[in-house]
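Subject: Protein record for review, amino acid sequence with backbone structure tokens
Category: Structural biology, sequence-to-fold work with a learned token vocabulary.
Format: Residues in single-letter code; tokens as whole numbers, each standing for a residue.
Body of memo: The sequence and its backbone structure tokens, given next.
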Amino acid sequence: MALAKEIMGISLLEKSSSFINPSKVLLNCNFYHKENQFWVNQGRRKLRPTKALRQSPMAAISENLIKVVPEKAVKFKVRAVVTVRNKNKEDLKETLVKHLDAFTDKIGRNVALELISTDMDPNTKEPKKSNQAVLKDWSKKSNLKTERVNYTAEFVVDSNFGTPGAITVTNRHQQEFFLESITIEGFACGPVHFPCNSWVQPKKDHPGKRIFFSNQPYLPNETPAGLIYLRERELRDLRGDGTGVRKLSDRIYDYDIYNDLGNPDKGIDFARPKLGGKDNVPYPRRCRTGRVPTDTDMSAESRVEKPNPTYVPRDEQFEESKMNDFSTGRLKAVLHNLIPSLMASISSKNHDFKGFSDIDSLYSEGLLLKLGLQDEVLKKLPLPKVVSSIKEGNLLKYDTPKILSKDRFAWLRDDEFARQAIAGVNPVTIEKLQVFPPVSKLDPEIYGPQESALKEEHILGNLNGMTVQEALDANRLFIVDYHDIYLPFLDRINALDGRNSYATRTIYFLSDLGTLKPITIELSLPQTGPSSRSKRVVTPPVDATGNWIWQLAKAHVCSNDAGVHQLANHWLRTHACLEPFILAAHRQLSAMHPIYKLLDPHMRYTLEINGLARQSLINADGVIEACFTPGRYCMEMSAAAYKNWRFDLEGLPADLIRRGIAVPDSSQPHGLKLLIEDYPYAADGLMIWAAIEGWVRNYVNHYYQDSAQVCNDRELQAWYAESINVGHADLRNAEWWPTLATPEDLISILTTIIWLASAQHAALNFGQYPYGGYVPNRPPLMRRLIPDENDPEYTLFLADPQKYFFSALPSLLQATKFMAVVDTLSTHSLDEEYIGERHQPSTWTGDAEIIEAFYEFSAEIRRIEKEIDEKNADTKLRNRCGAGVLPYELLAPSSSPGVTCRGVPNSVSI
């Protein structure tokens, strides 16, 4: 009974003299009796009677309540409980304005509300409305220091008012406030919930009334008559008119191309190509800010440089707890205070690590910073935990990355190098080797012969007695191939100061134990002439010299991997490619649309973190360019990857099949047989994928019984069409876009989006510091090529191979800058919302069956977490359990705050 009450959000009416006796008048919902069951009709499709419905207090309403209908409308009072979230910290101006608002509230400059019914008034032909009510006691409660403050307001309505479907809010104060929720009490069917979670701007800045809808979902063609106009008006307001410079207080969602990464006004070195749009390199669209063009290039948008905020719609900005705890506070502390201090301390020398002890000392002893008096503020900033140990003596001390926690030499081993291809931070690139030797798909007239330099003799001795063809047929050979994505950029990359790279291919052999071992690495450079040696093959070492060459070759592979991971798999495929779907959802799906309610937690914070990335991470001379091998060509490489992006293959099962790493098999639990059975990312991912798909299937089938309902849902069709035709306009004509014509189509599309926003992003993001915080394990850039006998540097290499190795890795400045940033990006904030969780879990929707289905989904996520823990303790699974082997927890759903190398948030929130 308690659970049913929570699910339905229904409680017995408060006994108050100000309310008409609810046993005499039916005020809100229409009830009728059939075969001892009570059915509810709230202006939309009849719900199937569920256990929760039958057990709810509705079934206990007296016969008088059902039978007695007044002949004349009766006036009565209902009460609104309005929950406002306070700011924890206010600046002086905010404090003064808050006091001013408290004073003027007494003289009528207050917060006013108006209830709107789902029913039309037959006389006025407009929705029925209550009187205007104001929030009580704002001045008395303005100084409360609690996180949330509850205000009340009283409405007078007629007994034939019907069901409240919307509420308008007018803020006559000087300052915005965060409206969390409104609950209306006093109607016979119990409390009516309005989840708001929005900033309400002052009327002087935004004259229109804010509209909030109840938690009752409606498909567009089922919208009650009283709400039709409001539903359409709210969407029009959110779309804007596509003109003007956006203010930080705006709530307008619109599209633009990536023409804001460069700053040509600072000089040619800061100019960058535009991404997306006609005549430009194809790329997804971003959120439009409307800023004026630069002085020197009318097609480039002027920048708002750090630390000033860049525009995203007001409700997309980080909530204060996240802002203070993590992203804006800590990221800015790193970018604007710590990194300049690092540069001031070590950039003049820009010295290399002299040995492994230099790197180890970053964790044990710390790095001495040369802080002046003005930099003492650095010690008081909300820096990440990893760099929070700036103590007496100005020592910057890093936390030990997880890769060193079990075995500090694990990164040197070939088996760990291979294990990270399926259980590290970028486990989505490995493929089954289809043909040997591998063949390039690049144009041979531009990039030279497509044939690889790999020969059978390079791998034959590492195949456990098999021939190459036998190993291929037995599904024992796998490849991580970065040849085609890097080669077109290598001439330009290697012309940069302090950058030298190859285009790499690595072949792995699957052992009888289910582990991988690297058996050869191919290193390619652009062909400079018919007889140039542009390709080099490195095999596992047989002597000391070969060992150092092998280590350097693996470092170049890891550098390639770091670039593809960050620019293609992480940024492009989760952050950038999801942004159009999010923009379209806000523009085309009403907040009362059931699909909007489903997607809502999976869109949280994404526009804000993407805006921060464009401002400080992927911009010209930003962190990504500074720390990764491609340098100023990073985003062009990301755009090159977009040309091969396919939404229809972004779901996990389709991606595994595309890479040849799995084959369809109906006898397997998820309909797939993995060719590498102990593939931690895939094994855990398939469980989460199935859970998401099951939840989405239950949800979609509840609202759409047939294809006609999907095809006739104008908001749904507009969302999907706009996501493709505007948000991904450069690929709009691709034939591979899935159709949206059936419930099954919708289930597939939504499952893919939720998977990308939650589990896929988590798998690619939260291991960045745990694996990359030890730079030799995963160098983000390389500064030297591998010398051969004819190179002048070969003598230096032979004389001191360790010194040469470290001179090829990032410098001390590059490494410490990179470490500080990826630690920040790997951190869970205190207000993180993980998969299977929702804010206001019992009131985000008014459908009891959906609440029940969501709790089942949450229970399945908890079960999966236990199964992952069990797998990580299974000694037969050698890729996640063993001496010095890290457990694979990147897809373990829950996490505590901080850098934990686990946890699956609902959304791309960092």
Notes: Residues 1-70 have pLDDT under 50 and may be disordered. The longest strand covers residues 75-85. The radius of gyration is 30 Å.
